[in-house]
Amino acid sequence: MPIAEAVQLSPPVHRLRPRAEPAAPILLSPPHLTGGELPALAATLQSGWVAPAGPAPAAFEAALAEATGLPHVLALASGTAALHLGYRCLGLGRGDEVWTATLTYVATIAPAVQMGARPRFLDVSSESWTLDPDLLERELARAARAGRLPRAVVPVDLFGQSCDLDAIGALCGRWGVPVLCDSAESLGATCRGRPAGQGARMAAFSFNGNKIVTAGGGGALASADAALIAEARGLANQAKRPAPHYEHETTGYSYGLSSVLAALGLTQLGALADRVAARRAIFERYRTCLGDLPGIAFMPEPAWGRSTRWLTAVLLDPALGAPGREAAREALAAAGIESRPVWKPMHLQPAFRGAPRAGGSVAAGFFERGLCLPSGSAMTVIQQDRVIGVLRSL
Ligand SMILES: *Cc1c(COP(=O)(O)O)cnc(C)c1O
Fold first, then answer.
1. Ligand 1 lined by 208 (C-beta under 6 Å)
2. HSE-up (13 A, CA, CB side) for residue 107
3. Which one of 168, 173, 198, 261 is least enclosed by Cβ atoms within 10 Å?
């Protein structure tokens, strides 16, 4: 059957989207598909290039270089794969220390731990909810005195908000410690006018289905350093040396991004500015309609960063009259609305029990009181009103 017919036989795209009827469940951050993806997918299939090679991954990488301002980009099968390759290219080894913000998703640190590195979890600042530069400065000075600097510092751009990468980069630069920025949640954000991740030695991005734009699964590693990305590119394709037989001086991974997914990602990337605007508008509407409730506070946006508001995060303080975070989550769930607690800090996760940490309990407090509300860019006003109605009724 010709591809065009096969595509027409597939379910109409509106069935892939959350429906607007009040009874349909409202998800936290579902993929936003418009149907505009279908011609790109059909063309990719018709071209015969479906593997992780050919024009689609290259075009996706070029578009990402444009969007991130980082000239060298490697498209990958996931954001976790990007972080893994980032660690590998930094030469991370057994026993090395990796410092990261404790308030993050597990993928930030999991590959490093699997490589035998020792994580150290630093608290976040309440100004941005991201890695606290003042704390980092003190800890780096202390580590330098002890002759035990970390192998890498991995700040995290959280819920669409970039970390203070200029400050973090300057501090790490002082001690020669490379920065691998986990920008998976903040494609489209800016930090002092520059795209999130720019300024780090390397930055990792994700195109998971829940992210602001998706490839249906995918990631990217980006850098201003061509040699680093060239090395990562080789490792992502099993570290094959150019020989008619396959010659391997080291071993790599099968981490390439399929052309089919790259084509989807490329179409989605074209809508990034619209998706940022939609998510920011949803955040503003929540703030307008809920901001007067006692004990509620919205994730701040520091003067130096423009967030995408990938997820709207609120703090609920029962001492000031708000419902508890779990009470709110359960009430929303009972109404068919998905919400999620703010990330459980890594230093509280059983998998990292005993790992050293630094700083206070800012992140722990955000976890205790923080809730992420449905923030999908295709969310309708009616759907937003359902969420608002449940929260106001508590
Ligand atoms: C989504 C995400 C990743 C990468 O996730 P993948 O599902 O592997 O693409 C990494 N770090 C953070 C903070 C994330 O939110």
1. yes
2. 21
3. 173
CB 301 within 8 A of CB 161: yes
Atom of ligand 1 minimally distant from the CA of 218: 9
User: For the domain bounded by 37-269, which CATH number is listed?
Assistant: 3.40.640.10
Q: Within the chain, which residue ranges are assigned CATH 3.40.640.10?
A: 37-269
Q: Tell me the pTM.
A: 0.94
Per-residue pLDDT of 290-335, as tens digits, reads: 999 999 999 999 999 999 999 999 999 999 999 999 999 999 999 9
In the chain, CATH 3.90.1150.10 sits at 272-393
Task: Determine the topology of domain 272-393 in CATH.
Answer: Aspartate Aminotransferase, domain 1 (3.90.1150)
Ligand 1 pocket member 100 (CB < 6 A): no
Cβ–ligand 1 distance for 159 under 6 Å, the answer no
